[in-house]
């Protein structure tokens, strides 16, 4: 009985002392680790409450690519950021997805890279944030959508 009481007392002391420690340290990052971190940037306007605006790092894939055979919408290539919703080794499959997207009111185009991969682009933008916003809009249907930048 004395040992049980001692055990519970010791457990209570450990519990109380553990709850008093700061919870600041979340994870240890090993030295030399390649980590990209973003910090919130607060945007303030005089006489208005401060609302934090969070930025995220650009996550893109850079490739050399051109319009696939039969494509005529060269205007899309004037933009820097392109949202890719499909990638195919056969142009026929890419054209099938493009046809479906265009019948739904999109202006999808097919491009081909130096490895003969056909990318279906659903939209192109000047700003990375616009491309990310478009991906967020279509993430339920295209969860693997990504941003392509021409080398």
Walk across the major sheet and give the strand order.
Answer: 3-8-5-7-6-4
Could you give the count of β-strands?
Answer: 8
User: What string, H for helix and E for strand, traces the elements in order?
Assistant: HEEEEEHEEHE
CATH class descriptor of the domain at 60-150: Alpha Beta
N→C terminal distance: 75 Å
CATH topology of the domain at 60-150: Alpha-Beta Plaits
Task: Give the fraction of residues assigned to helices.
Answer: 25-40%
Which descriptors apply to this entry?
151 residues; alpha+beta; Alpha-Beta Plaits; six-stranded mixed β-sheet; two-stranded antiparallel sheet; 3 helices; 8 strands; 28% helix
Topology:
Layout: H1 2-19, E1 41-43, E2 51-53, E3 60-63, E4 65-67, E5 81-88, H2 91-103, E6 109-113, E7 118-125, H3 128-138, E8 146-150
Parallel strand pairs: 3-8
Antiparallel strand pairs: 1-2, 4-6, 5-7, 5-8, 6-7
Describe the structure.
The chain has 151 residues and is α+β, with helices and mostly antiparallel strands. It is built from three helices and eight strands, in the order H-E-E-E-E-E-H-E-E-H-E. The strands form two sheets. A six-stranded mixed sheet has the order 3-8-5-7-6-4. It has a two-stranded antiparallel sheet with strand order 1-2. A hairpin with a 7-residue loop joins strand 1 and strand 2.
């Amino acid at each position: 009985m004395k040992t049980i009481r001692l055990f519970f007392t010791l457990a209570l002391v450990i519990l109380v002392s553990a709850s008093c420690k700061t919870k600041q340290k979340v994870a240890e990052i090993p030295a030399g680790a390649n980590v990209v971190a973003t910090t919130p940037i607060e945007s303030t306007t005089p006489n208005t409450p401060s609302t934090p605006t969070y930025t995220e790092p650009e996550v893109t894939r850079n490739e050399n690519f051109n319009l696939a055979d039969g494509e005529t919408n060269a205007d899309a290539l004037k933009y820097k950021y392109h949202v890719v919703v499909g990638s195919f080794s056969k142009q026929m499959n890419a054209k099938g997805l493009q046809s479906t997207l265009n019948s739904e009111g999109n202006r999808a185009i097919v491009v081909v890279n130096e490895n003969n991969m056909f990318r279906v682009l659903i939209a192109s933008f000047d700003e990375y944030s616009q491309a990310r916003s478009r991906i967020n809009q279509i993430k339920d249907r295209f969860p693997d959508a990504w941003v392509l930048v021409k080398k």
